[in-house]
# Entry
Amino acid sequence: MKIVSINAMRGPNYWSVRRHKLIVMVLDLEKMEEYPSNKVDGFSERLKAMFPSMYSHRCSEGCEGGFFMRVDEGTWMGHIIEHIALEIQTLADMDTGFGRTRGYGEEGVYSVVFSYIEENVGRYAAKAAVRICEALINGETYDLDEDIQEMRKLRESSRLGPSTGSIVAEAEERGIPWIRLNQYSLVQLGYGANQKRIQATVTSETSSIGVELACDKEDTKYLLEQAEVEVPKGDIIRRERSLQDACDYVGYPLVIKPIDGNHGRGITVNIQNYEDALEGFKHAKNSSKSGAIIVEKFITGEDYRLLVINNKLVAAAIRTPAHVIGDGKSTVQELIDEVNKDPRRGYGHEKVLTQITVNELTETIIKDAGYTIDAVIKKGERLILKDTANLSTGGTAKDVTDIVHPANVFMVERISKIIDLDICGIDIMTTDISKPLSETGGAVLEVNAGPGFRMHLAPTEGLPRNVAAPVIDKLFPPGATSRIPIIAISGTNGKTTTTRLIAHMAKMKGYNVGYTTSDGVYIQNRLLMTGDCTGPASAEFVLRDPTVDFAVLESARGGLLRAGLGFKHCDIGIVTNVAADHLGLKGIHTVEQLAKVKGVIPETVSPEGTAILNADDDLVYAMRKNIECNVALFSLDEENPRIKAMQKRGGLSAIYENGYITICRGEWKMRIIKAVNVPLTFGGKATFMIQNVLPAVLTAYLKGFSIEDMKMSLETFIPSATQTPGRMNLFKFKNFQILVDYAHNPAGMRALKSFTDNLEASVKIGIIAGIGDRRLEDNNEMGSIAADMFDEVIIRQDKRLRGKTEEELIKMLDDGIKKRDPNKKTTIIPSERDAILHAVKHAPKDALIVLCSDVIPDALNLVKELKEKEANELYEFTTDNIPNQH
# Structure
């Protein structure tokens, strides 16, 4: 078996539009196609022995044991690998269950698709499932435990922590989109200019002064003392020689800790004499960055954490460090092992509680208590194993929110304002939180910026608290929006022009627009990324930008199949058309399959949004059956019965009628502008450009643009190398014209032909090239259309070979030309630059040279260079090595 590719999907995709995050693995079974599961001796028995839990997999049989029934009957190994990948994730405590295995269109090659919780674990599961399947086929032993533990480690290394994860989950529940900005806990909530950010439980609205104060225990304590808040008596020292005086001033028992410590590092508690104080000082020094050490009174009582968000107490918990209780017969290690059997304890943050681990600190604490790890402690005696009560070190928490005394509530809410933190955890030591600190002799020990939520979300005892909700309430109060308008455009031809036109209209309306195209990514008219930027990474680039308040995203089939969309919902989804293009790639072999891919765009539109569909295209029109949003149609024919039916229902449509670009609300017409006055249509001659204008004006109307706004935008959108690079760029020279266009498939060539047929020229010369990832018949057809379009054809081929040779591609085009017209004047010039120079040098007066280029910047730069030479009367063309005609 050979893995051809593994990709993770972002957002909606071809396989499953909304429900899952997916791994898509293309798997070549090679000769194994001849051996389904029932043809491999002992395979079924070995599979059942390794994965008895797979009995719960119902598969297509719809009953328990259904998957094993399929295995016994005989099923392909790709299907089995799908189920193994799901099961091993479940065994690693990442329960997920969506999977599909489908033919790729090539014998023995399959797309194996399954869901994941963490992407890196999903990728690992894909490879591990193949290894496991091969071992089962060969009857070899396999250490499954090693894979399970590795997946757990991978999850812990990359997953969002419990606090960040809870905020993200709450955001998702409210329909707020999010993007992870780094491999740690920095997360963007919302899109573009309406985004907020969190890093763990620090938000983009958290005061930097507040964080700095909370990290400086000396300043925190000073401010609280000045505000008459009960804090332990203490002193700050930096040198060992000051320790004795500090101990005498504070009095035993005392606690020593670094001033800039966190997570309990460097703390020594309940110090009763100077010798222990000296050890505690050294321990604190090792954990201190600044060298400043706090020596303060040790307050007896229980350790409480009170969580304040937006200056309101939202949760309180009593924390207990990791410990064991003796039974008079078990060793400390045996007691720890017994505690760790609690099903609520897991690896890292995977469960409510964390397993207790024994490290050097634990051994030191046990030794200080007079025991060893192998010692037996008395029945009922509690042995503390960690120096802090953090859940991450095995501690436990009990919710006490409902019993916090009002005086203590007032105090902690006031502290949050004194320190100026929107989210803070306040540590209090007291014997009874239901009484004021003034009565119990308790004290505020610490104020924490970025406090952990885990103890409140899932306490060991007591009521869980949704502490993420008030965070979202603060970041996105009622009336605030987390989104920006997102317009997504797909189709075979016209996507880029439609994208650019909509972006232009939005810019004219005053929006700060970010848009993606096959040329690059633009933010407010500035090109920031170059190349084909129609995939999810480019979409996220725009949606991450805090200056953008309007996004227009070209979405091509390649990105959808490779990695999804990069967003979950859009406001408007446009499909311009569907025609044969890129067939035979990534498992897409028919136009109907291609339509299903492009149909993801309208399926992704939010329920209150609108899908704008081409009523003149049967496959596009059929997409309306699979969507849950509003539908608007556009057509070049106002008599189209689909348009008439939409108008009868009072729906929205855009049509080309009596020379006008017109929007119809029901049967009422709103004429926007005459097509001849829209520069993009070249005086109405470029019909396919009119087709691009129709969904653009529908989009503008839906977003509230006035007719005057639309008209002005259409009149100022000039087809040029700047506004529409490589899309109908017409350059007029003294004796000829050059038209540069991106036509790169038969449908695009036919549309271009309909335009050039209306242009007068003494002779029409076409410069064309084959593309390596097109089928033989597609390149043949490109040649045949060129034979009909041009009086002379120049075949060039120096870029985008994509797996084929230059000679193969040239022959495909040449065969198509000869099939249509064996006598067509044809020249083969591999270099695009040489081909252009040859055409220009030999162009008769009033000729039209049409350059069908797929590397637009290079072609445009050369044409501009020629234009400058003409202006300076410096025509000097290099004609060396120009091949002869044939």
Observations:
- Residues 875-886 have pLDDT under 50 and may be disordered.
- The chain is about 35% helix and 20% strand.
- The radius of gyration is 35 Å.
- The first strand starts at residue 2 and ends at 8.
